[in-house]
Amino acid sequence: MRTKDDQWSITDSVGRTALLVALGRALETRSDSALISDPFAAQFVADSGETDLAPEHIEALLDADDDPTLTRAIDLLRNMMAARTQRIDAALTTANAHGCLQVAILASGLDARAYRLPWRAGTTVFEIDQPAVLDFKNRTLERLDATTEATRVTVACDLREDWLSALTGAGFRSDRPTVWLCEGLLPYLTSADQERLLTTIGAAAPADSVLVFDVPRASFDLSRMDFQAQAFGVEIDELMLDVGEFAAQDWLENNGWTTDSDTIGALLTSYGRSSVVFTEPTTDTDPQAAGTVGDAIDLVVAHRR
Ligand code: SAM
Q1: In which domain, by residue range, is 34 found?
Q2: Does any domain span residue 1?
Q3: How far does the centroid of ligand 1 lie from the alpha carbon of residue 288, in Å?
Q4: Lowest CB count within 10 Å: 7, 131, 142, 209, which one?
């Protein structure tokens, strides 16, 4: 049950969704013809102690191939994270090359881009997430002696509160072009909190700033995600709030941003992987009901006018 000021660790509630994303990146990284390489992802999952999410365990289940629901859930997770990560890596690298030397990763979870991407000299990567999530992440990074060309600054804060003051207090400059990332975040906020978040970003984003995020469409059917709960113990439909109610892309167009978007399904096709992100088969005879999850999620890149 979500509450307006709920907190979590990496293994429970919304925190566990960050582990799930890391698992998807780990599975993709370990697969043949991987679209991405994230060597940190498997390390985070291992350090969480959640053995049911260990990539080796999940791969053994895949090899056994005796549970179609599980196979579909794993396939969905791995491919979605591959497409999302690949597209976002490219968007952030391009924005950095074009002059955004501040990178603000909101709800950074176990995102290792501060270490994975080739940042320009002078880049600062700010990461905001809840305190327990950042503590867990930092312990693994310290264990690995991870190093980065960028300056990495973590800000433990709730994104429903006055996070911009905390970010500014940590050295962020709102008069400098910044590339902002909200990956896997908006559905975990209410519509009002989503609008507040975008308003706050807009107030701290001068011209030439870039904002990247993914967002489910109104057509995204949360009830079709039940099989993810069975497979990974994450009750996505209980964690997500107001899905599809706030039209983030339209709002940005009306509030000083120019946007472009692709569905995750279209991105997968462009990366040579088509028709892999199918929803749970339905007995529904309505062909409109048989869409793919990937077609109901947009990846948006917005430029500040
Ligand atoms: N962006 C990361 C990635 O894609 O790897 C993590 C995505 S995970 C699905 C959701 C993340 O949002 C979690 O790390 C969670 O702690 C964070 N989050 C959700 N609501 C938040 C809030 N109100 N304040 C801070 N972090 C939040």
Answers
A1: 13-279
A2: no
A3: 32
A4: 142
